[in-house]
Amino acid sequence: MLDAVMLVSHHIRATHAAATPGTQTWTTGDAAPIMRDLLLQNADRFPLLATTQTGPSATTTQEFGLHAILDGLEHAIALRAR
């Protein structure tokens, strides 16, 4: 149980810090459009990512990761219950 709490807590801390402009030493928050453009220019190398990229959003990043984590926890709990 504590592992699940720590996993969710670390995800929230990590996505919040990465999504807040100026919190990373390598960027002032202006890198998102550049990264998006690079991804779209190389869409043939990353087809799945290129089709799902709609634009930078801290909320969607946090929600996507949180849903993935919670789905994984639900699956793990279901397997243990069998």
Structural summary, described in words:
This protein is mostly helical. It is 72% helix and 0% strand. The protein has helices at 2-19, 31-41, 47-52, 58-81. The longest helix has 24 residues, at 58-81.
* Biggest sheet descriptor: none
Distance between the termini: 18 Å
Order of helices and strands: HHHH
What is the beta-strand fraction? under 5%
**Class computed from helices, strands and strand pairing:** mainly alpha
The low-pLDDT segments are: none
Average residue-wise pLDDT: 76
Number of helices: 4
Question: Helical amount among residues, as a percent range?
Answer: over 70%
Quick description:
The protein has 82 residues and is mainly α. 72% of the residues lie in helices and 0% in strands.
Outline the secondary-structure elements:
Blueprint: H1 2-19, H2 31-41, H3 47-52, H4 58-81
Helix pairs in contact: 1-4
